[in-house]
Each structure stands twice: as C-alpha cells, then as structure tokens.
Amino acid sequence: MQFTELGIDSRLAQQLSHQGIVSPTEIQAQAVPTAIAGHDVFAQSKTGSGKTLAFLLPAVHRIMKQKALSKRDPRALIIAPTRELATQVFNQCRLLIASTNISLVKILGGENFNDQVKALRKNPHIVVATPGRLADHLSQNTVQLNGLELLIFDEADRMLDLGFEEQLNLINQSADHRLRQTLLFSATLDHAQVEVTSRQLLKTPKRIILSDAQQKHDDIEQALYFADHLDHKEALLKHLVTDDSVGQCIIFTATRNDTQRISELLKEMDISAVGLAGDLTQAKRLDIMDSFSRGLFKVLVTTDVASRGLDLLSVTHVINFDLPKQAEEYVHRIGRTGRAGFKGVAVSFVGPKDWKSYLAIKSYLHEIPDFKVIEGLEGKFKGLRPPKPAKKVNPKSKDTVKKVKKKPYKKPIKKNKKPIPAPFDVDGAAPLRRKPKPTEE
Question: Which positions does the motif Q motif occupy (predicted)?
C-alpha cells in the first residue's frame, strides 16, 4: 500500500518520499483514513509502530484542504505528556510541513512564557504543547481555542499518571464545540482512568486496537539477569556495554543521582555517555537529546523522562539498570529500541529491590523470558520467597486453646482487723509467752 491510497494530499506523500518513508504502517493505514473522514479516533498500537505520523498526516491534510473555522485560533492542537515527547512530535511535524505555508509553534514548560505569548500572537496553525504550560496560557487568556478544529492527545495514559487530569479537562472545556474532532493515541489503553476520560473527550469514536501492549514485541529480544547488589549490577553493565554488538544504548535508572553516577562510571571506561534527568533546564535537556540523536554520545543514561516517544532508530540496546515501578512503563522503556522494523535488545537487571517490580511485569505480560547467566558474573540471588500465609484457626480443632474451667466462688475469710495488743516486737511480731520460772523458797 502507498500513502496516496490513504487519501492524503499528494504533497504530503511526496514529502514522506523525500524522507525515505514509502509505505504506511498498520496503524497509519487504519487511523489516517478514519481521521480524514472526520471521525473521532481512540487508537492503541505498540511502541515504534508509527503513531506520530498516524495523527500528524490527517492534521496537516485537514489544514491544507479545508477552510479554517477561525482566523486567529490554532487549527490543530497536539498535547504530549513530557517535553521530550512534545519536542519529538514538533520536529517530525516540522519536517512534514517543510514545503508548505503552515506555521507551527511549540509550547513547553521550562521555557520563557513571554516569548511563547509572542509566538501565539502570530496565530500559528498548529500548536504542540505539554498540558501544564498550555493550561497556564489558557488561564492567562494568552491563547483561545474557540476555533480549534482538531485536538490530539498523545500518550493519554501517561498524562493521567502524571496528574494532568485537571489540565486536560480545562483544555477540553476551552475547545468544547460540536465541530471539533478529537484523536487519542497511546501504546497502552488498558488504563481505567483513560477509559473514563475518553468518554468526556471523544464523541462516538472509532476504536482502533491493533496490538495488546502485553503481547511480546517480535522485534525486541528481551533478556533478564539476576543481580545480588549494586556492585554486581555495575559489573554486569560494564560487561554488556563493551560488547561489539552494542550501537547506541539507553540505560534507565530509578533516580536522578544514579544517572549522574552511572554516566561518570562509563566515562571512566572511555565510553561517551551523558546523563539526562528531570531536574535539568529545558534547554540543557533538549541539547542532550539532540546530541544523542546525532550520535555524539554512545550511551544515554536517564530516568523515565525518556521512556516515551523518542524515535531513535540507531538505538540497538535498552538496559533497565533498575526496573520501573509500573509494569506499563517497562513496555515503553524497551520500546525505545526495535523501532520501524529494526531489531533491538532489551536487558533488565533484577535484584532484591527489583523483585516486586519483576513480579508485576511478569503478571502483566503474556510472555517474559527466562533468566540468563554471564560466565564469571553469576549471582547468588534467585528471587524472594513469598511470605507464608498465616494459619487459619479451626474453632472445632483439638489444637485450639483449651478452655480453663472456672473455680467455684469462695467467700473470702474475714480477717481480724483488731490491733495486736502490746507488748509486741519492733517488727510487728508478738513475743513468745513463756511460763515464769518457779521461785525457790
């Protein structure tokens, strides 16, 4: 199938051809015609399947082909949960509209608010934003959504997990009119809150569920290794990252401090590594991601900040130094490799502190690989035993505590409370009475 068969403008198909993108993926083949037809879309597809183009193509096509509802308000609004994912969407959209007159603006937290106000006053056709900062602009009346034609939510489950429900409701209410079309995309939709929120955001949507997030990703080879402690994890990491098969690699850690420590550890091994954490400034984070995408670093050490939306085809390996707390996040982490038909490897270290997460992932996924062993780096840890259930006491059992028979009640003997007559000893005891000796005559 060719992109022209999806009903998109020929200029868009030509632009995709210049980028080397010839055939649509499965999610694109189903979602693009449905969205172009004007339906709301509720779509799920695995990571690396091309979801971003699946909503960008109908958005740009609509702006090219249809008359605007408003001359001032944005025509399409794309909401992404993190700055990194929003930047990724922005960059892909910029390539798509390169040969058109369509204007594009990025509105992210951590950037200058007044500069964003100036950009919004130029009446851009498309706005890519994070929910928190866009809500700030709506509260300040620096952007209006009365004429918005297309509202797109990317990774809706992640936005709800991050606590953006209030902001999503504000955005929805600000653009609540009958002509608005809404598209909701994610890699995982088996999320109770997403189901509830989708009923508020979408109007009789077409559901496109192509793959279960819990199914095995055929393009990703998964491997698990037991680790006794932190030093053991570091020894395993050193062995794996020096393998010749590793191209670019993303290492996921639990904390910001670990990102810095592990990146310094790799630098001491003469491996070009960089750490990315949420406490960095937006400019610094974008600079790190840009440098990594251009191949200036071999290893990116990060928290879950980079677990979604980063489309980097050169990433051959993902290493979970620490397992995520949520099983769904594991799917997004390993999805940073094995993208667009390329093969990838996802490695996870499982120590005592990771065992609870491992059990959650095991119950969430339909298939999970067996543990592997590296010669010379075998671990003693093999998992934690489940706690023994408390014994149930059977009231009819002979082992129960025997009832103690009550002794019959006896009236207490009344004691003589009269004082002991003198003479008496100093300690209260009466002296012995002796018979007087007989007197001699």
Answer: 1-29
